[in-house]
C-alpha cells in the first residue's frame, strides 16, 4: 500500500494519528504527548466521537480519526440488515460531522464521503469495513500530497538560515515543510508559541521539529513581542481551521494577537491550508466555546483558587488585513482573490478527503 507519510515525524505517521484494526480504533493521546506515549482505544464509533470532542486528537488529527471511526462503525453494524447498516453508517457520519462546531463543514464532508464508500461496498457485496479503511488511507495520501505542495510553496518564502514562528499545531504542514526544506538544502530555526491551555505548540509542534533535528526554541505565549522586537522572527506562519473566501481565517485562540504583533513589527504572516468553498466570509465562522475548567488546570494540576473563573474560546478569527498571504498547494493567494483557488477546479480540497 502506497503511503505518503514516509520520512514524517512520529506524530505524523498514520498509525500514530488514528488507526483502525480488528474492531477497534487506536488514537494517540496528544493531550499527554510527549510526557507519555499513550493511545486511547475505542471499541465503538461513539467513543471515537467523544475522543474528538475531548481533544484526544486535534488539528487535522480528527480527519483521520473520523475515517477510521467510520470503518469501526461499519464493523459495529456488520450483523444488521443492509438497510439498517446503511442507516447506522449515516447516523455515525452525522455524529462525526457535528463533533466540533468550528470545523463542522470539513468533518461532515469527510464523514459523509467515507459513509458513501462503505454504503457502495454494501450494495456491491464487498466488505464495508475494508472500503472505509482503504478510503481513509487514500484520503490521507491525497491530503499529505496536497499539503506537500503547500509546504513547498511555504519553503520558498523562507530563506536559508531563516527563522519561523508557529502557533498551535499545523499538523501535516509541519512535516511537509521539513521535507521541502531538506530537499532544497535549506536550514531554518523554529520558534514555537506554547499555545495555552493545551500546549499544542510546546508538546506537538516543537516535538515534530525537534524530532527532525530542527533548531527549535519554545516561547511562552507572552514572550512573542520580545522575540519579535529582538529580531528573532523572520516569518510568522500558522495553519487554519477555517479559511473563508474573503481571506478571514479561524485558528487557535492566540493567533490574532500574534498577527497584530507581526503587523506592528513588519513581519509577514503566512497562513497555510486550503479555502473553505462553503464559507464566503468571516461571519460564517462559528467559534467553539470549550469547558473553562480546561484553562484552570493542566494535566490534572489545578492552578487557581476554587472561586476563580475562566473563559475558553477555542479559536480566534483573524481578519484578512493582518494576513500577508494564504499559502496553498496552488500558490500564494492575497486578500480579495482567495476564491481564485477554485478557478480551475470545482473540487473542494476537504471533499477530496472523503
Layout of helices and strands, plus pairs?
Layout lengths: L17 E4 L2 E5 L10 E4 L2 H9 L7 H16 L5 H16 L6 H20 L4 H28 L6 E5 L5 H12 L4 E6 L6 H12 L3 E5 L4 H6 L5 E4 L3 E2 L5 E4 L2 H11 L3 E4 L20 H4 E2 L2 E2 L12 E4 L6 E4 L2 E3 L15 H5 L1
Parallel strand pairs: 4-5, 4-7, 5-6, 7-10, 10-14
Antiparallel strand pairs: 1-2, 2-3, 8-9, 9-13, 11-12, 14-15
Tell me about this structure.
Strand 11 and strand 12 form a beta hairpin. Strands 6-5-4-7-10-14-15 form a seven-stranded mixed beta sheet, with helices on both faces. Strands 1-2-3 form a three-stranded antiparallel beta sheet, with helices on one face. Helix 2 (61-76) runs antiparallel to helix 3 and helix 4 packs antiparallel against helix 5 (128-155). With 354 residues, it is an alpha/beta fold. It has helices at residues 45-53, 61-76, 82-97, 104-123, 128-155, 172-183, 200-211, 224-229, 255-265, 293-296, 349-353, and strands at residues 18-21, 24-28, 39-42, 162-166, 188-193, 215-219, 235-238, 242-243, 249-252, 269-272, 297-298, 301-302, 315-318, 325-328, 331-333.
Keywords:
three-stranded antiparallel beta sheet, 354 residues, disordered C terminus, single chain, 11 helices, seven-stranded mixed beta sheet, alpha/beta, globular
Q: Write down how many β-strands occur, each being a DSSP E stretch of 2 or more residues.
A: 15
Specify the helix fraction band.
25-40%
What pattern of helices and strands is seen along the backbone?
A: EEEHHHHHEHEHEHEEEHEHEEEEEH
Q: Radius of gyration, rounded?
A: 20 Å
- Straight-line N-to-C gap: 18 Å
Number of helices in the DSSP assignment: 11
> Which runs of at least 5 residues are low in confidence (pLDDT < 50)?
348-354
Which strand order does the major sheet show? 6-5-4-7-10-14-15
> In one word, what is the shape?
globular
**Arithmetic mean pLDDT:** 95
Largest sheet: 7 strands, mixed
Structural class: alpha/beta
Percent of residues in beta strands: 15-25%
